Amino acid sequence: MEYILSWLMEDTKVLEQLQGVIPRLGIELKEVDGDFTGGLCCVKGRKVLLINSSLTTRKMIEIMCRELVRQDLSHIFILPAVRKKIEAYRMPSKEVASRESTSMGEPAQILSS
């Protein structure tokens, strides 16, 4: 039942929750225009998650979840429905590369840590 509820949460609410989690991990979130989709990078020693501001809410959620699943989330509280959404992006690296190139339309261009 809890699994089903996690997928019923409104996208805007999920996005708001994810936007709140990111800074608690010491990651700066920047939504900017450009010719990219987004991803985690390191700028002058700081972790920055860049997101193209013209993306749909669902694409923004996808990028944030894809990057958050690689982080240690054990020390912070995340709503169970949002945590399940993040965990849904945990898969073998071959599948992640395949998914990124097909669902995002292009391979990630930003280095992930």
- How many domains make up the 3D coordinates? 1
CA-to-CA gap between the ends? 34 Å
Number of E-type strands: 3
Biggest β-sheet strands, sense, barrel: 3 strands, mixed
Strand order of the largest sheet: 1-3-2
Q: Helix- and strand-based class? A: alpha+beta
User: Helical stretch count?
Assistant: 5
Task: Write a concise keyword list for the protein shown above.
113 residues, alpha+beta, three-stranded mixed beta sheet, 5 helices
Task: Explain the overall architecture.
By secondary structure, this protein is of the alpha+beta class. It is built from 5 helices and 3 strands. The model is unreliable at 99-113 (pLDDT under 50).
Topology:
Blueprint: H1 2-8, H2 11-24, E1 28-32, E2 38-43, E3 46-52, H3 57-68, H4 80-87, H5 93-103
Parallel strand pairs: 1-3
Antiparallel strand pairs: 2-3
Helix pairs in contact: 1-4, 2-3
What's this entry about, in short?
With 113 residues, this protein is α+β, with helices and mostly antiparallel strands. Helices cover 46% and strands 16% of the residues.
